[in-house]
Amino acid sequence: MESEVPIGRRVAYWRVRRRMSQQVFADRLGKSKSWVDKVERGVRALDKVSTLRDIAAALRIDHALLLGQDSRPVDVTARIEDVELIGAALSAYDIALERPTAGPTVPDAARVMRGVAHAWTSYQHARYPALIDLLPDLLAGAQRGHAHDPRAGRVPLVEAYRLTAALLVKLGETGLAWLAADRAMALATGDPVLVASATVQLGQVLRATGRARAAGRAALTAAYRIGQADPDAARLSLCGTLLVQAALAAARQGDDRAAAARIDEAADLAAEVGDGHDHHHTGFGPTAVALAGVAVGVELGTADDAIARHGEAVGRAGWRWLPPEHRAAHLIEAARAYLQTEDPGSAARVLLDADLIAPSEVRHRPAAREVLAHAADHPEAPSTIVALAAIVGVSRA
């Protein structure tokens, strides 16, 4: 529980989150650096309320946070009922069975599309709890809209299913994610662009369920199909993103040559698209491909290469243009690479950065929580990451 985290570790955790060195923090408090170090290590007790308030003011937090009285560890299981509502929306066949629906109003396609666009923005900013609450009604509205006007409602519903699959993969709900991706693929059939966009999420789901070979085949088929048409930035982005999916699938199978070939193909397309775009919610560009190269290295176990690529990728101008979700997800992959090289300090640093950029990416994703637990469990783990793990409520023990 968070209340069991020593106050000194809390101080260290928040100081690092505020990007202050011990010396800068000490100067703001009118204390010595040695005093700060002893507080953070638990050698010196903090038993004066006035001192706690001064520290909280310097850290720009409520002093109750230092005492563990104002916030609770993230409890992922508390969201289970809400995720089940998404499952219920996906499993509803009221329209096909001509049952009366709870929402008789049929939203027009433009309104549904605005709702889907808003939901994609929430996803890209890693606002997962809010998105979980939003999706059941969004899915129901998109389904009613498509039933009322199949032509105008097709794209919004495919996008709603894509988004649902993407979120559910993040949350480790792969069974429901597969249902959403399958719905998107079935609805997209006949439109190469829609099929390509739906296949992006299908590839994620297949890899998450241990079907890397099938993921690679689907991604390559859709990529080459969309690539045969007259190229524009949007189609190139889809094609390139699918090639990235194929690279990750190949890496999952240990095929380093195929993974490298797909990354090279994607890089060629990315050079034509450029950074700073988000066609079909892919964020595709040279920086995205560079980050994918890191993920491929982590999958293949070539951690030193992955770390070198990470340093180059985050130094690109395009790094700051990527959505918070994308950047935080990458930093979690970088943490995996650092842990493979027994460097818990660097793993802690990038995990803290990820938590600062997009807290839900670290705190709600089971895969990210596992990385955090692994980092905190290392014998040489910094106190800051141990504190974060305790606050989040994860442990490998």
UniProtKB/TrEMBL annotation:
Domain HTH cro/C1-type: 11-66
Protein name, as recorded: HTH cro/C1-type domain-containing protein
Organism whose genome encodes this protein: Micromonospora sonchi
Gene Ontology MF terms: DNA binding
Pfam families reported in the protein's UniProt record: HTH_31
